[in-house]
Design goal:
Layout (H helix, E strand, L loop, with lengths): L1 H14 L13 H6 L6 H9 L15 H5 L6 H14 L5 H11 L7
Helix pairs in contact: 1-5, 3-5
Length: 112
């Protein structure tokens, strides 16, 4: 699919510039809680640069704290959104989000 290929190219273009300095980690609320590198913005950069899209992209809160600290002003949250788009195009969306979406579509309410 062209749309999927374009999204992947945009992700790589953003993340290949990451110098893996780790400054982004100190503000990341997900990393502060979980304390595992793969959940840090630097971990995301490594995985996404290696074209691994399905491991952790739904574990990011998209708060943009990492972007505030990035010395290269990388748009990490844009790359995460694009990775989510790739998974949705492959129909591999987060099961919990899919359940909420299905309930809304069926008129059941998201949290019923």
């Amino acid at each position: 699919m062209i749309e999927e290929r374009n999204a992947k190219e945009e992700i790589i273009e953003i993340m290949e510039k990451c110098i893996k300095c780790g400054l982004c980690k100190e503000l990341c609320p997900v990393f502060k809680l979980i304390r595992e590198e793969q959940y840090s913005p630097r971990g995301h950069a490594i995985l996404l640069s290696n074209k691994i899209f399905d491991k952790i992209v739904f574990d990011c809160s998209l708060c943009k704290a990492c972007e505030e600290k990035c010395p290269l002003d990388l748009k990490i949250c844009t790359a995460i959104r694009k990775a989510r788009q790739v998974l949705n195009l492959r129909e591999k969306e987060n099961p919990e989000l899919k359940n909420i979406k299905d309930k809304i579509i069926n008129g059941e309410g998201a949290f019923s």
